[in-house]
Task: structure prediction
Amino acid sequence: MTQPLPTTLQGANLAVSTRALRKRFGTVNALDGLDLQVPTGAVYLLIGPNGAGKSTALRTLLDLVRADAGSASVFDLDTIKDGPRIRANIGYVPERTEWGYPWMRVGQLLLHHSAYFPSWDAAYAARLITLFELQLDRKLGGLSKGQARRVHLVVALAHRPPLLLLDEPIDGLDPIIRDETLSVLAEHFSDTPTTTIISTHHVSEVESMVDCVGAMRAGTLRAQLSLADLRAGLRRYRAEVPDGWAGAPALNGAVLRRAHAPREIQWTAWGPEAEISAHLTQAGAAIRDVAAVSLNDATLALLNPKADQT
Amino acid sequence: MTTLALHQPPTYGTVIQQQLRNAAGALRGAAIGLFAAALLFFILLTLLQSSGQLQGPGPSGFNLNSYETIPVWFVALIAAGALWQRDEPTRRGYHLAMPVNAAHHTAMRVGAGWAWLMVWVAVYLVLLCLLGLVLTLIGGGQFTSQMGWWGWLAPFAAATMSYLLASIPFVASEKPLAWIVAVPGGFVALITLPYMFKARALTSVLDSLMAGPFSPQAPFFPMFFRMQSPAVMGPRHPLELDWQTSVTAAVVWTIIGLVGVWLATRHRARGAQ
Result:
């Protein structure tokens, strides 16, 4: 590999940072030395396959889960010692939408929630209620997944928290409400100073908002970098190769994903374009084009379990 | 370093107020059901008394005694269950993600449920007194109460200890009902087996234990109403204890319940949201 994938964000003023965070559930390593670095004011996209430890990482920041080892801080406050103060500054949309108050109506929940957050913006909450078409007289126990998600979004956003933790925030929403939600989030980011961590599989839909990306696999970060660096360093190379081509050994480790088409091979590789192109040419491949990759393709490449053997 | 102006968490006064409101909402259904059942019982007994069918130890046919504390036990259990309905530890993410110390927050919720339970017990006592009065008026007896101060407090103490003990599995376990059935069941088996097998050494230990302040039944049998003329009073219940023993037992078991709840609030569910 010409250069390893970066896992630290240099020189950033961090709103969230974790150091060597480890959490084991039975025989499963949910977090395995996680070093998360989220710059203040950034929208940080946390990607990873199911079971990678994304939700556990977010819950650790809320102190809903205690790590076995390592430490985590939010706005320079320790997540264990300063849990209540940190949670007062977090808007959280959990992956699972359960409330524990099945008898409570949506309107009652919003009143209840507003009492816990002195910074609650009632006018903004009213606007979100209208935008998300919430029915205040519905009981929480009877809400569908999409409706519950919208209620969670209102309670997460309406107190204008400095940190938003959004765990699959658009999962279960119909396309119209999903589009509305993304617009609301974009607007929220523009008028409220917020640091955001989004964990979602709908990568292409949040691409326009994202500043940084963290790719998790098996409880650890495989890559952590700004979107600008990702776009600059990750390229898709399309080349024609001779019959019986032996490959380009010099690129071992740099290629994250390989796809075959008739008489050509596509590589998604990390590193300086000139260097990778030179290696391919020396190995006998005729490069036809080099292109930037979309965030969705970058996700597939970064999370490719075969990347290290490609 | 960040220079953000961070938001402050709520005051404990606000949280307690919210938990009292939430507990009222969570317990509302159970309260309505129990009140309706008590009223039905009231009406049924009144009808039986007026038709002369009520069998009892004296001319008034109704004698309020220690057994009236027993329903309090079940009411306390219902209250603990209703408060935590569909909110097992692994589903308690919303509650725990609030800006309050998680253990304190859970303890405040338990406390709010207890406060409403005390209101229930007060209503229950009022209903019992009314029932005694009505039955005495219909039956022609004399309504008198010679109950001491502990007699009036005992139902509250019994409800408190039952509620605290029942709250432990509801706060800490994914399967609270299994614990609620298994622990008393195991206890009964434990105290029955030595008698069945006539293990004298063990039965004498158990006898002294069950008669003393560590007996879990002690707080349930001190309440002794004397609402009728002493002439119609039934015999003293064999399990009835003197009030000092009962008070000690109530204190001991309440402390055990409080310690259990304190430990339960610190329990962290493995897969909590």
Remarks:
- The first helix of chain B runs from residue 12 to 50.
- The two ends of chain B are 29 Å apart (CA to CA).
- DSSP finds eight helices and no strands in chain B.
- Residues 9 and 99 of chain B are 6 Å apart (CA to CA).
